[in-house]
Amino acid sequence: MRRRASLVLLAFAVFFAALSPLLRWYAFPRLAKIPPSQYQEMVLEAKPATLLNYSTLKAEKVKKLTIVQTLKGNVEESEKIERSAGRDVVVWDALSYVQGPDGKMVSKIPERYIFDAHSQDPVHATGEMVDGEPVNREGIEFKWPFLTEKRDYEYFDAQTRTSSPIHYKGTQNFRGMEVYYFEQTIPWTKVPMPKTMPIKDITPAQIAEIGITRWYTTKRMFWVDPVTGAPVNGEEVHKEELRNAKALGLDQDSVTVFAGHVKIREDYVVSTVDLVKSQRVLILLLTSYLPWGFLVLGAGLLALSLWLEARSRRPGEAETVRRKEPEPAPTPA
């Protein structure tokens, strides 16, 4: 009976030991993915900020500038692209809406970001764009891959429509979480005018005819949860200006359009941290808790199986069995 039990335990030990790496290296890359219908809203503020007054064409200090960023999963488009791409694809329709202290629109930049649901690598398909212009993204944007590594990544900048390294700067503690800190600096670069201008009846083409150009620089900072790859906080030291401003009759050659230190509003930081903490448990189940748990369980079952097998083979018990066996009858003379 003990030998039969030990064989059953041995079979379970082998099963759980084999299931451990299978769950981590086979199931996790296929099960962990971004849902195509995800919706997220984030409010950022620059307090104080410098903003161009378009009525006087002078830069003025304002108490606050607000940026509302929305990411909306486009399920219909993702399913359409999946049929041709042959893999799980997520399509995010993003909008960055900037408004001044009076609530009036300063700028709005729409984006369509298409990426692999598992790896977060960009997927190039029709519709990939920034502000209505087709782009060919390289690297990540908005989100890092699951199980983020301590290394530099290529990060796409929507203003310049180019990708450049965002550097890993170390591990920090943020709101009780161990996070990776990344930093990217975009030097002064000439960028396109927004398609939607804050002044009615003024188009980017008309401004280009005058000879005015728009330039931009920023220092971008992210604190990223390495398990989910989701940023729990982000900041930008941002500056934009118009150059060749003398064409507008101004004394200086350049005028600041916007300058400020942009930060996520506190209530959105709190809600983001809570969301990431709940989601990281699901990733840890597939990458750590269950694989290691199954491995330990398999080792325990193996030890118990060997112990039962050893007990079934103890010399004392074998001798007792031999003594109970009837002795052969004596051979008659």
What does this structure look like?
With 333 residues, the protein is an alpha+beta fold. The chain is 32% helix and 38% strand. It is built from five helices and 13 strands. The chain has helices spanning 2-31, 75-85, 204-210, 266-312, 315-324, and strands at 39-53, 58-62, 65-73, 89-99, 105-116, 129-130, 133-134, 153-157, 162-174, 177-191, 213-224, 231-243, 254-264. A hairpin with a 2-residue loop joins strand 9 (162-174) and strand 10 (177-191).
List key phrases describing it.
333 residues; 13-stranded antiparallel β-sheet; 32% helix; 38% strand
SSE inventory with pairings:
Layout lengths: L1 H30 L7 E15 L4 E5 L2 E9 L1 H11 L3 E11 L5 E12 L12 E2 L2 E2 L18 E5 L4 E13 L2 E15 L12 H7 L2 E12 L6 E13 L10 E11 L1 H47 L2 H10 L9
Antiparallel strand pairs: 1-2, 1-3, 1-13, 3-4, 4-5, 5-6, 6-7, 8-9, 9-10, 10-11, 11-12, 12-13
